[in-house]
Amino acid sequence: MSAPYSPSPAQPRHASRLALWSVAVAVVVLGLKYVAYLMTGSVALYSDALESIINVAAAIAAFIALRVAARPPDPGHPYGHTKAEYFSAVAEGVLIVLAALSIGREALGAILNPRELDLPYTGLLVNLGAGVLNALWATRLLRAGAELRSPALLADGRHLRTDVLTSVGVLLGVLAAKLTGVLWLDPALALFVAVNILWSGFGLVRESVGGLMDAAIDPRTEARIRQLMQAHGDGALEMHDLRTRHAGRLAFIEFHMVVPGEMSVKEAHTICDRLEDAIRAEMPESSISIHVEPQEKAKHHGVLVL
């Protein structure tokens, strides 16, 4: 028996609005960081600004993906379009990797030909303002991404959080280069930024590909599902072969339920309804399928109700 999933339009619209705001925030941060680079001539600040170009592109990709993911199921896509969010996260990871390679090239050139920094303190303050804005918005995206179970928002929030840590390192490095007069500290730090961004990009791609490959939901959530199955499975004998996967914010849950051979279809359906209601109360964005089997199909493992 299967419980049809009826998506709530409010959550996808909210996620799309947040993604659109991310585009605006990314543009403002890019402008501030580029001004800071022009004021100082710092290669590290240039690398920070270049990563913000990636932030703009990633925010636009997330907005488009969330709009597609919000579409309801149709005859051509009976399971919905929620996996579109993973494409956004993969694209963001690839863009981050490209940005890291570009930053690394600039940094190596500046190490070979270091140059004096101009007006560093004013430029650092401008860059600091951009970092604070990024930190505030990253916190908002991570909170919303967890609440809405949105891979696109979570990927954007994690990227911005990495960007904030990078900006802090850049500010400290540029300040150290100015105070000590060791000019190679600036491009050396930019090279460190490139390596850090590269690692972040690979992590995003790996996680998103897992979603595209139908990876199971996290073990803690799966254990909670088993607890709910046992607590609300009165009347059944056992439940086994639990399988789960994620598709964006939507979780797919399926398992087999063994009932006494003499039980009526109506009684078995009542148990299924009770299980579906209990699971969906804790996981609203879920599609649940239960395969009812007679007693002789028992495997004596999984969730034993008796």
From TrEMBL:
InterPro entries: Cation_efflux, Cation_efflux_CTD, Cation_efflux_CTD_sf, Cation_efflux_TM, Cation_efflux_TMD_sf, CDF_Transporter. Keywords: Membrane, Transmembrane, Transmembrane helix, Transport. Pfam families: Cation_efflux (PF01545), ZT_dimer (PF16916). Signal peptide: none annotated. Residues 21-213 form the Cation efflux protein transmembrane domain. It comes from the Bacteria. The keyword Transmembrane applies. The keyword Protease does not apply. The chain crosses the membrane at residues 18-37, 43-66, 86-104, 124-143, 188-205. It is a multi-pass membrane protein. NCBIfam families: CDF. Belongs to the cation diffusion facilitator (CDF) transporter (TC 2.A.4) family. This is Cadmium transporter. It comes from Deinococcus aerophilus.
